[in-house]
Amino acid sequence: MFYKPEEGHGLPHNPFNAIVTPRPIGWISTRDAQGHDNLAPYSFFNAVAYVPPQVMFASTSAKPDRDGTKDSVANIRDTGVFCVNIVSEALRDAMNQTSGPWGREVDEFTDAGLEKAPCDTIDCARVAASPANLECKLTQIVQLPGEANFVVFGEVTGVHMRDDCMVDGLFDVTRFTPLTRLGYQDYSVIRETFSLKRPE
Length: 200
Prior knowledge:
By secondary structure, the protein is mainly β. 12% of the residues lie in helices and 35% in strands. It has a single domain (24-187), classed as Roll (Pnp Oxidase, Chain A). The chain has helices at residues 16-19, 71-79, 92-97, 108-111; strands at residues 23-24, 26-31, 37-42, 45-49, 54-59, 81-85, 116-118, 125-127, 132-143, 150-161, 166-167, 170-171, 179-181, 187-189. Residues 18-177 form the Flavin reductase like domain. This is Flavin reductase like domain protein.
């Protein structure tokens, strides 16, 4: 099968995000200028640089109570900071609860029954139960073609890793089985890993 996106695919559901899989989930926590906390998952997320460490996530829809975007991007525009909370299999239901179309006044931490912890380098809350958290300072927001497509880039200024996920000096993802996003409404978890040596 071949299709041009501008002409449509003719399928019951868009296959695009089922092709680019698995994707890590950026569970983004922010705090607005009035001190209200927000938490939402984004599956267009990844690390993009080592030195200095940098990440990105993309927001691709808008809410009626925000100016052409969603709470996360609006809050980051105002405050210049955000935190990425890594999603373990154990946190999947809480993550899913925070994906709802809640109003800007809703604190998703409270709504999903999640304990907050303070960040060290930025004024923001983080998910205490996450296996790792990346505290970030905004570097730029890029608007992409499309009605509400924004990519947020941030430099990582602080890193939290749970002690029980450390094995012989390595951050061991099999200790918490990361949740990954597939296409449609499907997810997967990473339960085993293997290593490959690069050619010399």
